[in-house]
Specification:
By secondary structure, this protein is an alpha+beta fold. It folds into two domains: 45 residues, no CATH class; 134 residues, Jelly Rolls (Sandwich). Helix content is 24%, strand content 34%. It is built from three helices and twelve strands. The strands form four sheets. The protein has a four-stranded antiparallel sheet with strand order 2-11-5-8, with no helix packed on it. Strand 6 and strand 7 form a beta hairpin. The protein is rod-shaped and about 95 Å long.
């Protein structure tokens, strides 16, 4: 009898559906138009790619580098701001380690969007833009957007009915034993 209840419980769990958990998108490295001296004018704001924001996202994380491993001799970068839509996600300011670095090693950055920022982006295609803020060459390494949705555990109605029927049958057997 106990085995019957266990089998029914497992059948109910097998019918459970889960929401899509992850979506990863990657943009290739980007190198700007050329060397710009202070005080500018600099390279105009430039869309370097787009990301597709999905409905139901509960978490969006961006990672990338200032400077690019694709051009190690030019891994230094100008001052620059990176935007996903209207959200500032990374900034390399003049004289920071990411700026004018001639080590040949790109400087990593990451940003986790807040629920309010995710809501402000909406759904659909969103521009990823670089804005140059000081001298040198704009260099952005590969950029990755990782979207996640909290897995929603939602038993299917049929599974719930199967579990309920099994429990009612078990209750009936217990009732019979108590009556005897």
């Amino acid at each position: 009898m106990k085995m019957f209840v266990v089998v029914l419980s497992l059948a109910a769990l097998a019918g459970t559906t889960y929401a899509k958990a992850d979506n990863i998108q990657t943009l290739p490295s980007y190198e700007g138009y050329g060397y710009f001296d202070d005080p500018g004018p600099y390279q105009p704001p430039t869309v370097i790619g787009t990301f597709d924001i999905l409905a139901g996202d509960t978490s969006i994380d961006l990672t990338g580098t200032f400077g690019s491993a694709d051009t190690p001799n030019l891994s230094s970068t100008s001052g620059e701001n990176l935007y996903l839509g209207d959200v500032l996600v990374a900034s390399c300011v003049e004289f920071a380690p990411c700026w004018g670095d001639i080590s040949g090693i790109p400087t990593p950055w990451s940003y986790d969007l807040t629920p309010a920022e995710i809501a402000s982006l909406g759904t659909g295609i969103v521009d990823f833009t670089v804005v140059q803020t000081s001298e040198f060459v704009v260099q952005v390494g590969e950029t990755t957007l990782d979207q996640a949705q909290v897995p929603a555990v939602a038993p299917e109605p049929t599974s719930l009915m199967l579990l309920g029927t099994g429990l009612m049958g078990f209750a009936g057997l217990v009732w019979r034993k108590l009556q005897a």
